[in-house]
Automatic annotation (TrEMBL):
InterPro entries reported in the protein's UniProt record: Peptidase_M2
Pfam families: Peptidase_M2
Assigned keywords, A-Z: Carboxypeptidase, Disulfide bond, Glycoprotein, Hydrolase, Metal-binding, Metalloprotease, Protease, Signal, Zinc
Family: Belongs to the peptidase M2 family.
Superkingdom, natural source: Eukaryota
Record carries keyword Ribosomal protein: no
Cofactor note: Binds 1 zinc ion per subunit.
Entry's Gene Ontology molecular function annotations: carboxypeptidase activity; metal ion binding; metallopeptidase activity; peptidyl-dipeptidase activity
GO CC annotation terms, alphabetical: extracellular space; plasma membrane
Name recorded for this polypeptide: Angiotensin-converting enzyme
EC category: hydrolase
Cited SUPFAM superfamilies: Metalloproteases ('zincins'), catalytic domain
Organism expressing this protein natively: Cephus cinctus (Wheat stem sawfly)
EC number: 3.4.-.-
Length: 643
């Protein structure tokens, strides 16, 4: 009997199913076209998977060991891959995919028809690669001298400078670190940036887009996306203004009115972060109720002997508790979770998909701090996304939009860093929920999440204008500060000139990474948090007996995990509005989750600012930005001559 079955199976395998035969003779022209289209996509999918894998291996090897040889290999492999992309792109351009009846196939071809930088001619592509690698290398290997100690000139951004900026309360030292970092990074890459802009724009035009900003924006699949971003900012700005006014007052009380004025922008070096992008460290000097516990678990983590692996295992455990996928063995084998001391690497944390469905890695110079615990969740969110969509075709192995990719780990961290959760895992004793504790907790979170919004917006406001030619290379730096002042209400600690290049002191500018993704992420992560909390049965706006949004912890909710997982599995196979609808029932980005989450804090800050009669907003800075340093020196001299 078994033999008969085997024979039949073998016969079927050899000649195919009889129905196959008959269907091929009666196939309609459209069916044939669809079959051909699928065949072509399959071929492209296999080939591009192999190329992506090769390029990623070479890029990883360089980023994790910044040698000339590794750079040469990376550029070489990228060039070969770009040649493949160009051939594939021409083939797609000649293929009449636009009138295929299957929308999914059209979507795949559409994506393939805009492949990005690889369409540059070989020499231009190589030049672009070299410029970005060189800028990233300068940034990643920059060192400065210790304050008042010219004998130690080995301070790196991670960890030394970052930790000093977060912990020092000496304004002169902070100013020194701020200025020196910009000399060692931004200023050194200033001359490379205009050519980078030019080549990026050329690539965009070859992709049939007017400039590189348009190329970045196409991933957001909405013509009015910049308007959507701006409308969200108009909604969120009032919160930011309250936080800004409160923090400025606290800093004035700490550092004095000569350094921090009553109604001006905040000096950027006092906010505990090199770019004033998140202000968490100023909670130490400004927390609303100092007698009450602040949810900073760094000391506890150190006490309990945490190390990098334990931090990442803790993050993994959160994902697993939702029934999401655990990190594969290869992840633990290949990731770099600590800064090596035998070579230079790119320390800026990142998560990598090697496009073979098996190899996924994180590279992070992890320190035992609460910040890094949150970053570990952030990075692992990227890996979880990779794992969930690993069976999609290569063109769909990306987030619904780049903001979605950035949001996933942060959504986990919103739950994992509630005082309740920290208490559960022994990192906090007190998880009381009286008003003072709630305000302290939301204040620390607000310094991280609300302060970030205008920074992220400003980053790409500047770059959009640069790529659109509205900001020219001889006004890069001063326009950078105009925008930072307008959105963030900050000012440099010293006068600046066009001989400085402060944008180049930030990783994503030199590494060619679009930034509005983080702005989008910081809005939609609260939308996701709200939706998942509802699904977990933890939160219901109609039921005041349940916890408020800022106390919700979706830990162990398989239902929330299933909902999130179903969205992650889509990759970019559907427009982001569909993915958003799947998880939240809404088809738009909506700030109301964030507003609701922070509502108690905003009410408190508004009342407090009223009590102290704080100036809300800021008057123009008195700091100057001019063309040359000589101009500054000359006018400073004139000033002192007059005294
Ligand atoms: O770059 C990152 C991550 C890697 S995607 C560490 N972030 C932004 C930054 O550091 O500027 C996370 C939030 C903002
Ligand atoms: Zn990220």
């Amino acid at each position: 009997m078994l033999r008969v079955i085997l024979l039949v199976v073998a016969a079927i395998l050899v000649v195919g199913f009889p129905s196959d035969e008959s269907s091929s003779t009666t196939e309609s022209p459209e069916q044939t076209r669809l079959k051909d289209a699928k065949k072509l996509l399959n071929k492209i999918n296999k080939e591009s998977g192999l190329w992506n894998n090769k390029v990623t291996i070479a890029s990883w090897n360089y980023a994790s060991n910044l040698t000339k040889e590794n750079l040469a290999t990376k550029v070489n492999v990228s060039l070969q891959s770009a040649d493949y992309v160009k051939k594939m792109w021409r083939q797609v351009a000649e293929y009449p995919w636009q009138n295929l009846s299957d929308p999914d196939l059209r979507r795949q071809f559409q994506k393939l028809s805009v492949p990005g930088l690889a369409v540059l001619p070989d020499a231009a592509y190589e030049e672009h690669q070299n410029i970005v690698s060189s800028m990233e290398n300068t940034y990643s290997t920059a060192k400065i001298c210790e304050y008042k100690n010219p004998n130690n000139c080995d301070l790196a951004l991670e960890p030394e400078i970052t930790e000093l900026l977060a912990n020092s309360q000496d304004p002169e030292q902070l100013k020194y670190l701020w200025v020196e970092w910009r000399k060692a990074s931004g200023e050194k890459v200033k001359s490379l940036y205009p050519r980078y802009v030019e080549l990026s724009n050329t690539a965009a035009q070859l992709n049939n887009l007017s400039n590189y900003a348009q190329y970045w924006l196409k991933d957001y699949e909405a013509d009015d996306f910049p308007e959507q971003v701006d409308a969200l900012w108009q909604q969120l700005k009032p919160l930011y203004l309250q936080l800004h006014a409160y923090v400025r007052r606290q800093l004035r009380e700490k550092y004095g009115p000569e350094i921090v004025s009553e109604d001006g922008p905040i000096p950027a070096h006092l906010l505990g972060n090199m770019w004033a992008q998140e202000w968490g460290s100023v909670s130490k000097i400004s927390v609303p109720f100092p007698g009450k516990q602040i949810p900073d678990v760094t000391a506890r983590m150190v006490e309990q002997g945490y190390n990098a692996t334990r931090i990442f295992r803790l993050a993994e455990e959160f994902f697993v508790s939702l029934n999401l996928t655990r990190m594969p063995d290869l992840f633990w084998k290949n990731s770099i979770l600590e800064k090596p001391n035998d070579r230079e690497i790119v320390c800026h944390a990142s998560a990598w998909d090697f496009y073979d469905g098996k190899d996924f890695r994180i590279k992070q110079c992890t320190r035992v701090t609460m910040d890094h615990l949150l970053t570990a969740h952030h990075e692992m969110g990227h890996i979880e996304y990779y794992l969930q969509y690993k069976d999609q075709p290569i063109v769909y192995r990306e987030g619904a939009n780049p903001g979605f990719h950035e949001a996933i780990g942060d959504v986990m961290a919103l739950s994992a860093s509630t005082p309740g959760h920290f208490k559960k895992i022994g990192l906090l004793d007190d998880d009381s929920v009286d008003t003072e504790a709630i305000i302290n907790n939301l204040y620390v979170k607000g310094l991280e999440k609300i302060a970030f919004l205008p920074f992220a917006y400003a980053m790409d406001r500047w770059r959009w204008s640069v790529f659109q030619g509205k900001i020219k290379s001889d006004e890069y730096n001063c326009r950078w500060w105009d925008i930072a002042e307008e959105y963030q209400g900050i000012e440099p600690p010293v006068d600046r000139s066009e001989e400085d290049f402060d944008p180049g002191a930030k990783y994503h500018i030199v590494a060619d990474v679009e930034y509005i993704r983080y702005y989008v992420s910081f809005v939609i992560q609260f939308q996701f948090h709200k939706a998942l909390c509802e699904r977990a049965g933890q939160y219901d706006p109609q039921n005041p007996k349940l916890k408020p949004l800022h106390q919700c912890d979706i830990y162990q909710s398989k239902d929330a995990g299933a909902l999130l997982g179903s969205m992650l599995q889509l990759g970019s196979s559907k427009p982001w509005q569909d993915a958003m609808e799947l998880i939240s029932g809404q088809r738009v980005m909506d700030a109301s989750g964030l507003l609701e989450y922070f509502n108690p804090l905003i009410e408190w800050l508004t009342a407090e600012n009223q009590k102290t009669n704080e100036y809300i907003g800021w008057k123009p800075t008195t700091k100057r930005c001019v063309k040359t340093r000589a101009e500054l020196i000359k006018s400073n001299k004139t000033n002192s001559d007059c005294k």
